[in-house]
Every structure is written in structure tokens, then in C-alpha cells.
Known about the structure:
membrane, 3% strand, globular, mainly alpha, cell membrane, transferase, two-stranded antiparallel ribbon
Amino acid sequence: MLKQRVFTGAGLIIFALLLFFVAPKPVFAVVVLAVIFWSAWEWANLSALLSKKTRFFYSAGVLILVFPALKWSQLSLLLALLWWCIALLAVVSYPRSATCWAKGVTVRLVAGLFILLPAVVALLTIYNYLGAGLLLSAMALVWAADIGAYFTGRALGRRKLALAVSPGKSWEGLAGGVMCSMMIGVALLHCVFKISVVASLIIAVCVSLVSVLGDLTESMAKRERGIKDSGHFLPGHGGILDRLDGVVAGLPIFLLLWQWLSLPLSMS
């Protein structure tokens, strides 16, 4: 299983590099929309939408809503901030918060819109205005937090972070993940893109924390659905959302902070 995960992970990294730096913009856009479609499909499954036909219509609807979300991009990003505040309350109060989740499929499907649409808005905005290099750096903050949390948690993890949601996560792992993200933030944002150390650290800390919240939110949804993975698209990794939950949460926050800290709106 570990070997399979390593091979799949390496393949994903190579694919991402080719997509970001080699593929023409139309190809990039098509791949992003395809990933969003499949992510919406997986979220519909997490929401207990059992009919494949209904899942298809939901996923297609998410794709259609991408275009108005891009038009009102600032509102989309602010809605993401609002959603992740709500998600934090839901995770902290779980399993009591499960009563809200269980009220109906509509609540869960609307939550999917607040998760996916701002993510694609942030991704396309960063790619088009700030560049592929900065987009990859934003994603690297999330990956660093994930890897750092995993190894620190295995070595030092004692106090559970969210026992009812994800028993494997610890406060020590969270601290290790944030520290790794801070180091990557300084190495990339400060040393490469010449952003101040303070701004780099603020972005790294906030993005890493929200990425963990994204992971916990998906774990909560899977626990309520009674499944281990969001899908089986990636060998050894589960579904697309299993790999991108932190990125989906972190990118809108990255872009909001970039704007609020009055950083350059174009890196060209």
C-alpha cells in the first residue's frame, strides 16, 4: 500500500508540474473543470446522494456555477471564509453538530458549493494573475503542513486534536505541520517571491491551519456517511477530495490574505 501511495503521489507531482508550467492555458482550464466536476461527484456521494444521475446533475450544476462565481470572485472568497468559520464550529462541537448535517441532503449539497466554488475561483485567479509558480507555492504550504503533521504526529503525538472526528490527529502533529509550512513559506514566498518574512509567516500559518480544518471537515462528512474514502479515483490515495481537501480549503484563504496584506496583484 505504501509503495502504491508513493508511486501515485510521484505521478501526481509530475502531472501537476506539466499542467502548471507546460500545458497551454485552455488545457489547464479544462483539467481544472474536470477535477471540480469529479470533486463535486465525490461530495455528492459524501452527502448521501445515491442516484448517479442526480450526482451527475449536481456536478454539472457546480460547473455551471463556476462562471458566476468567477464574476463575483470577491463574494465567493468571503463566503469561503464564512463557511470555514462555520466548519470550525461544526468540527469542535462534533458529534453534536451532526444533527445539523443530518437535517437533509440540501444542507450538505449547499455546503459543497461553499467549499468547491471559492476553491476554483482562487485557483484560477492565482494562476492567471499571480502565476503558476505562486500557485504551486500556495499548494506547497498545504502539502508541507500535511507531511509535517503526519511525521511529527507519528513520532510525538500524544494529545488528540479532534478525537471524535479523526482519532489519528494530534496537537503535536498540528504544531509540526504548521512549523513545516512556516519554513516552506519563508523559503518560497520570501526567498523566491521576495515577500516580507512577516507576511510569509502569516500566510503560511493561516493556510496550514485552514488546510487542517478542510481535512477534518471531510473526515467528519465521511464519518457521517460511514465510508473510509471519498472515492477510489487514485490508487492508494482514495478519491480526489481525499488528496485535495486541504488545498480546497487553503487556496481561498491564501488569496484573501494576499489581498488583505496588499501584496502585488501581478507577479509578472
